[in-house]
What does this fold into?
Amino acid sequence: MNKTWHPKNEQRNVVLKPIHKVTITDILIWGFLAAVVLAGLFAWARQFFVTGLSATGLNRPVYWGLYITNFVFFIGLAHSGTFISAILRIAGQGWRKPLTRAAEAITLFSLPFGVTSILIDMGRPDRALNIFFFGRFQSPLLWDITAVSLYLFSSVVFFYLSLLPDLALCRDQLTDVPAWQHRMYEILALGWEGNHGQFERLERALDGMAVFMTMLVVTVHTVVSWVFGMTIQPGWHTALIGPFFLLGAIFSGTAAVVIVLAILRKVYHMEETLPVSLFNSLRKLLITFTLGWLYMMIAENMTTSYGNLPDEMRVLGQKTGGDFAIFFWAMWVLVFFVPLLIFIFKGKNNIGWMVTAAILVNIGMWIERFIVIVPTETRPRLLYEITKGVYHPTLTEWVITAALFAGLFLLYAMFTRFFPIIPLWETGESLEVGESRNENAGFLPQQLGDTSGMKGK
Amino acid sequence: MTFGQLAYAFVNTPGIGGMVAISVITLAAIVYFLLARWILKGDKKEAPGTANKQSSHK
It folds into this structure.
């Protein structure tokens, strides 16, 4: 029998254990999430076939509301995987390895919901194709479509390539799973043999892609911000909007990784695989991002207030003391004050506090997206004298929003039950031989020589 | 047609932007397909005796 090589990993049994069977609790949770998704589908179908966008609170001049807020938030959340996996890979941060796949999975499952949010907001999603038939290159919307599509595609490839060795491991090791599941691993593993040439090429490819993904991640969220920034609307037309969006995206994405890791650690008993030290490393990053967010916020609002331009001040007034004041100040509390105190004084070696802060950050960042988008539209530059806009999201919008989040959680939860959520080959220490079903695969163990070279970076 | 007119036509003509977007995605698909094939090829064509060096395995 021919052999397939797999890196040796003491945590293998712990990581593969959740894949062996789906529990009743899983089915109940999936069922609940699926019900929320179905409710959202029903609300959207009603909006699409019966009412049109009149089912929403959108009106003149407030054309963008919850749906676009969700779009920006999901795209931001998606930056977690690229940051952890690509940017920290380039920076040579070896501690990132156990959490790369968990972070990349957030990217993989968030992006489609970001794109879906746009289609829902369009009212007539079929018209999305018009951008390909009639799109002009000067339009930031076209840059957006191009960048997000390429990012989604590249993220899938980056994720899949790094999953290949572990898919082969599932193919070779998981003999007690249902036949369809085993067949799935066989197909997805693409005949991976685990020879040193494959590992070497995989490493080189991932290194190269990490550089490309880093450029993409900067491009994507900058371009998303330019959809707003390239207009002359007060509050949006600022050169700072690109870096501000990017920082916020990486901030909320990293906070989301903390939440996901804590859940995986608790539910799948991965205390040794995901040690507290990982959370401490993320804590340092989050402190940096919190302070970076403060810097951006001060720079943005002080520049606006010192300029004292009437259009800009009307929007700023809406945020600080007008219709959106409660959200604006809640954002400060949730994104900055409370999380920073927690990170500094309570977060060290305390996962519970870290998760609390990370949840607050993500709620706050969603509100921040809302605060960036809607107040400007209620006080637009040209129409201000004619109308003062108001926006009250409807039940339809809230149900669809809940469905989008439920869909993300559902896909993520299901993924963790069918695929190793910790990259076993990247965290492995050396090679060992396993049985292969591929008759043409591999080479003999003694040909590998010294296996100590497989130690992680 | 001057360079300026050409550039103006490129960014303003309806449809060209869409072609650029599709071209970018198509090019990426080709590159990723070739990349995956190159990775999977690995040591297949090498003699077994030459396969005794370890990857740096970052």
Observations:
- The radius of gyration of chain A is 24 Å.
- Residues 431-457 of chain A have pLDDT under 50 and may be disordered.
- The first helix of chain A runs from residue 12 to 20.
